[in-house]
Amino acid sequence: MTERPPHGSARPGGRTARTRAAVLAAAYEELDRDSFAALTLDRLARRSGVHVSTIRRRWRTVEGVVVDLLAEHSSTLPTPDTGDFRRDLTQLTQAIADFNNALRNRNVIQGLLAAAAHDSRVEEIVRAAFVRRTEEVTLIARQAVERGEIPEGTEAREVIAALAAPLYYRMLILRGPIDERLVHTSVEATYQAARSGVFVPKGDGKGDRKGDPEG
């Protein structure tokens, strides 16, 4: 007897997978045309061809669909591994800029953050998504420590936070694009700070380096 997959699981190429792909594609297209606030389950149903009851049963709300969409697209962002700390920071920052400069991606993030202010479930999902992605890219700093490019004891998460903070401040607070100059200044500020031991906790004793940081 063939064992049946668990209810709701997505078999590659199966109906569940096709339904998910159609709904997420519809959400992405809608957000390219309009704001998060204008998105409804009915609009998703019309554009995707999936019955609204099916969408509601699987995702419950528009926020549920968009959280899934964010996870789908943010997972495509690479974690650079060039063997050079500054180059890794540059590639990561440029990838973040390219992702967030796309109108639909910006609408997704801004809409979810607005929804999170009123819905603790959305808040937790969004926070978990950002924490997970941050943990993935800490590899950049951890490998830089192993190569001796930055001091032992460097807090990898603090490196990534310092790199990303100016980008999200520009996008979410100032509502402006992440331009080439901001990419450059964010990378250089983070690189020089990491090289000089700024991200090593005080009292660790591991932040001292022989010689001056490279320019």
TrEMBL record:
Residues 40-59 bind DNA. Gene3D superfamilies: Homeodomain-like, Tetracycline Repressor, domain 2. GO terms for molecular function: DNA-binding transcription factor activity; transcription cis-regulatory region binding. The keyword Transcription applies. The keyword DNA-binding applies. Residues 17-77 form the HTH tetR-type domain. Keywords: DNA-binding, Transcription, Transcription regulation. SUPFAM superfamilies: Homeodomain-like (SSF46689), Tetracyclin repressor-like, C-terminal domain (SSF48498). PROSITE patterns: HTH_TETR_2. This is Regulatory protein TetR. It comes from Streptomyces violaceusniger (strain Tu 4113).
